[in-house]
Amino acid sequence: MKKTFVLDTNVILHDSSCFYNFADNDVIIPMTVIEEIDQFKRGHDLINFHAREFIRLLDEYPGDALVNGGAMIREGSGRISICTIYQDEKKVSSAFIEPKPDHRILSAAMRIQREHPEQQVILVSKDVNLRLKAKSLGLNSQDYYNDKIKDIDNLYRGKRLIDNADPSLIEKLYTMPFEIPIKESGLVSVVPNEYLILRNHQMSVLAYFNPFKEVLERVDKNPAYGITPRNAEQTFAIHALTSLDIKLVSLSGKAGTGKTLLALASALEVHKNYRQIFLARPIVALSNKDLGYLPGDITSKLDPYMQPLYDNLGIIRDQFSESDQRHKRIQNMLENGKLEIAPLAYIRGRSLDRIFFIVDEAQNLTPHEVKTIITRAGEGTKVIFTGDPHQIDTPYLDSRSTGLNYLVHRMQGQPIYSHITLEKGERSELAELASDLL
Fold first, then answer.
1. How far apart are CA 374 and CA 407, in angstroms?
2. pLDDT tens-digit readout, 369-388
3. Domain spanning 230-437 has what CATH number?
4. CATH 3.60.20.10 fits 3-142, yes or no
């Protein structure tokens, strides 16, 4: 049966080209959605970009066709049309008294279903509440699945423990030149830049598959700017972060595993290879208070969001005495703009050449935002994403749709990409206990 998908506003603000992704089915945009989209046209955030881009894409179709039967989206696909009817359905108005845009969208979908019983009408929304309201009235509803990961439990973790490994393989990795051709290792299904813990009783070694040399290399426990890794995961993370061959790194893990600290320490360790270190994080409102409601100038408004980055910088600085050149270098880099901390929105229009670019709290980014950031990378730039997929603060994302997990899912196996899932908390015993039990 041919399906008709009715789109909610948040789907379009999430992906302006979403209507291309419904195969040969029809797509209907309620007029209420058009009105809401119009309110988002002005601004510099990504949702404002999506609003403008959607209007531009819609403008490519004849206006009279959109309101009279619809226009063909593309060859071999369904039709897109605008539902101009405002009349509330009795089932909606009796169930939900308050006149809200969501209820008008729901009314439009219910009316389409009533007038076209031969079609399967589905309301597509990223708003769980609206989907529940639709289902309570007998209307099919679903999330927007185009950029969702199907199997989150088997998501690539970037590291693997191999018990009962060949003892001779472990011994060879401790012998110069500390590498073995992958074909001679006896290991199968090893992903480029995958990290391995090879263990056999009391013997063990850390290694990774170097895709450029096609060898299995030993990984040593090396500090980064005074920060010494405390476990194998952190050792792997520093190795990936300081490698000049790996241009894209993602670190995921719960609070206290050292994601941001390791990324920042590694950036300082290899800063001579880059023109600038740039730390950014998405602005997510605190207690539902936008920037305009916070007191002070723009610097004061941004301080609560940027403070965690300064805290990590302070931890690194405290590893050295005030007379140490490494302690002074951090302050000099901040003053000279070689080390910059700013909201993620500030990267628009910037040239990202030879930048060590760290994006913190990346679990709050959509797949499209992650793509936008990576595609800005110029020659010699390295991009790092860190975040906890289980602490998402934005309302229309979950662990299956966050850009951080989407990045891992799509990029695994690429020779210039590396991912590490950090699992063991090292912040403190109290932080680890709270993370596990609360």
1. 10
2. 899 889 889 999 999 999 99
3. 3.40.50.300
4. no
